[in-house]
Amino acid sequence: DVRLVESGGGLVQPGGSLRLSCAASGFTFSTHSMNWVRQAPGKGLEWVSYINSGSTTIYYADSVKGRFTISRDNAKNSLYLQMNSLRVEDTALYYCVRPMATREESFDYWGQGALVTVSS
Amino acid sequence: QSALTQPASVSGSLGQSITISCTGTSSDIGGYNYVSWYQQHPGKAPKLMIYDVSNRPSGVSNRFSGSKSGNTASLTISGLQADDEADYYCSSYINTFTLVVFGGGTKLTVL
Question: Is there a contact between A46 and B102 if contact means CB atoms under 8 Å apart?
Fold first, then answer.
């Protein structure tokens, strides 16, 4: 079974940094693009970032561009999100998300999320 | 990019049908047949229910159907069941660099 397990969330002060990790299993990680999607408490979903299978194509939402960096290690079946210059509005549950094999804009597997709280 | 527009809440009785709308623009919903719908129960991760406007992933009940007209997509749930009570989110492909935009979500209450 496909499994995505996020880790690395926690409480950080505004301006601080945090690195999220996502351990993938149950599928050939190296052949799939991956995404991060976040959900602020009581709010809707927001796409954050995309990385293709070979790390040659990367996209970010305007809200995080220049502050967040997505990366992956196919040898370790892992996805990462380095978050710098964190703001209060970055507080959210961050999901590691795998798109369908043939539809990169439709997400068929989601982790349980890592909670990031930015507060002083 | 602004979020797609969904009603905040809808309700329906057991066994009835409901439809949730999702309105965008010609740059997202109207421009592509890449609309998806997700179901999210409280405290759970979202689940893909519909992709490419009207296709169901394997394992999703045929009580769930999707459609699109112009800049508005719709999710219809027929034969409402208690377990359908959840939040529903639409999404659409925008462009290569932004990838997708989500709707604000609709809370479905089953009476």
Answer: yes
